[in-house]
Amino acid sequence: MAATYLPTLKQLHYLVALREHGHFGRAAEACFVTQSTLSAGLRELETLVGVVLVERTRRVVRFTPLGDRIADKARRVLREAEELGDMARAAGRPLSGEMRMSVIPTIAPFMLPRILPRLRQDYPDLRLFLREEPSAAACDGLHSGRTDCVLLALPYSCGDIASATLFEDRLFVAYLPADMANPAPMIPAAAIDESRLLLLEDGHCLKDHALAACNRPELRAEATMMGTSLHTIVQMVDNGLGMTMLPEMAIEAGILDHTGIEARPLDAANAVRRIALVWRRASPRERDFQLLATALAAAR
Question: pTM, whole model, 2 decimals?
Answer without folding.
Answer: 0.73
